[in-house]
Specification:
- There is one protein chain.
- By secondary structure, the chain is an alpha/beta fold.
- About 50% of the residues lie in helices and about 15% in strands.
- The protein is built from 12 helices and 9 strands.
- The strands form 2 sheets. It has a 6-stranded parallel β-sheet, sandwiched between helices.
- The protein is globular, with a radius of gyration of 20 Å.
- The termini are far apart.
- Bound molecules: nicotinamide-adenine-dinucleotide.
- Nicotinamide-adenine-dinucleotide binds next to helix 4, strand 7 and helix 6.
Length: about 300
């Protein structure tokens, strides 16, 4: 018999992830604060309900994909929080990128009520979410990871067990700090070349076959028109919001303070994103190139 899952948070990532679960044959009970997100999930075959508490009623598992720590803590632990509505023994998988300490807090509160919890942040962007090729970086008990594996397989290609509760978040934060650094570096290099007379497509091709090659350059090029099907070529819409990147760089800064491990380039990237977010917070994070580009 096919399983029924609750899915809360149907944004740029959660929407396509939920669609892949539906395609794989799972029945979904879904909730989001956005009517548009709910309408498109309904169209894809999900059962839309009026509250998160209703979504988790009678399900075999719960998946959430929310913006930040405060949303996740409030969903599970706030007034009328979900941990009071989910049946004991149920596995909860939070795929949001949040502070490791928040993930541990929710995991502990869940365990106190007989629930199982995994932090399972993802990498691969909206394209990976749509294609079902995400990388899941999971923290929690090994047997819970095994239980979640078929769900994660329906949404992704690589599943890593990083360690205990919160470990998935630590790995994800380190990855995204590096992503911000190479995105800003790529934007800077392209801007330098273009300001000195080069065609951004030609320069991208050269660097892709040279030692400057990296994911931002080759798969998510920030310069408009260089690459099809990336946010830069659709007005920086529908990708990974600059405000979410700034949030992740804040998490890296917190982890740096907590551990005493310096992150000078991460801090520089955080300052760049902080300036950029003053007027471009909702654009995709590759729009950082606008800080460098001479506007025509
Ligand atoms: P998003 O802002 O597009 O979507 C978040 C969704 O959560 C929205 O639809 C919002 O209405 C909903 N929401 C917020 N609070 C809610 C609540 N209390 N109950 C129900 N729904 C609620 O964000 P996104 O781009 O989908 O990112 C989600 C998470 O994934 C973030 O933690 C982000 O850092 C991470 N992430 C994003 C990407 C990306 O490329 N967009 C890639 C990897 C990881």
């Amino acid at each position: 018999m096919s399983q029924t899952l609750a899915f809360v948070g149907l944004g740029n990532m959660g929407g396509p992830m939920a669609r892949n679960l539906l395609k794989a044959g799972y029945a979904l009970r879904v909730f989001d604060l956005s009517e548009d997100a709910l309408a498109s999930a309904r169209k894809a075959g999900a059962t839309v309900v009026a509250t998160a508490a209703e979504a988790v009623t009678g399900v075999d598992g719960v998946i959430s994909m929310l913006p930040a720590s405060r949303h996740v803590e409030s969903l599970y632990l706030g007034d009328n929080g979900l941990i009071r509505h989910i049946a004991p023994g149920t596995l909860v998988v939070d795929c949001s990128t949040i502070a490791p300490a928040s993930a541990r807090t929710v995991a502990k509160a869940a365990a106190d009520r007989g629930l199982r919890f995994l932090d399972a942040p993802v990498s691969g962007g909206t394209a990976g979410a749509a294609a079902g090729t995400l990388t899941f970086i999971v923290g929690g008990d090994a047997d819970a990871v095994q239980q979640a594996r078929p769900w994660l397989d329906a949404m992704g290609k690589n599943i890593f067990h990083a360690g205990h509760h919160g470990a998935g978040q630590v790995a994800k934060i380190a990855n995204n700090m590096l992503l911000a650094i190479h995105m800003a570096g790529t934007a800077e290099a392209l801007s330098l070349g273009v300001a000195n007379g080069l065609d951004p497509k030609v320069l991208s091709e050269i660097m892709s076959k040279s030692s400057g090659r990296n994911w931002s350059l080759e798969l998510y090029n920030p310069w408009p028109g260089v690459m099809e099907n990336v946010p830069a070529s659709r007005g920086y819409s529908g990708g990974f919001g600059a405000a979410l990147m700034l949030k992740d760089l804040g998490l890296a800064a917190e982890a740096s303070i907590a551990s005493g491990s310096p992150v000078p380039l991460g801090e520089l990237a955080r300052n760049l994103y902080s300036m950029h977010c003053q007027d471009a917070a909702t654009l995709d994070f590759s729009s950082i190139v606008q800080l460098y580009r001479k506007q025509d």
